[in-house]
Amino acid sequence: MNEIARLLSRLHETEGVRILVIGGRGLEAHGIQRFTRDFDVLISESDMVTLARFLIRAGFEPLGENASFARFRHESLLYEPIDVMKVSTPTMNMLWEDSVLLPAHEATLRAPAAKSMTALKLHALKQDPSRLSRDLPDIIALLQSSAATLSWDDFLALAARYGPAGIAEKVRQLLQP
What we know:
Oligomer: single chain
Structural class: alpha+beta
Number of strands: 7
Distance between the termini: 35 Å
Radius of gyration: 16 Å
Number of domains: 2
């Protein structure tokens, strides 16, 4: 993670591109460790051209892009693929406002707050129920982590707003001893 973190940190410092680390790497900001094969980030859609140019100059090649996502792969296998989630500027402003510092050695990056990370996971589940086995453990880890500041009431409100039907009950059952 260190090389990509330093690279993205440099983009933020030199170009002012706000980057939030999401996915498995973003969970590290909340004291949660899990295996991941890529480096997921979230940016404002208005910064996509700047990010793409920067990554291409750094040896990454674009593998595909649609309205919401883009993927980049480096010519060297030493770098993980970078997946980019694009959001509107108002959404990015809201997520950035309550973001938290991500400990990344010599880099300075941020990750969404626990509530925002959970909302993103719930929204992803609602859009694609096949993600349940990937995102549900992350949601439970966020609820159980002492570093995350996500209460059960917060989760219920987020589940009602962003999650698929029945997700709160499923999580409640999994959390019971």
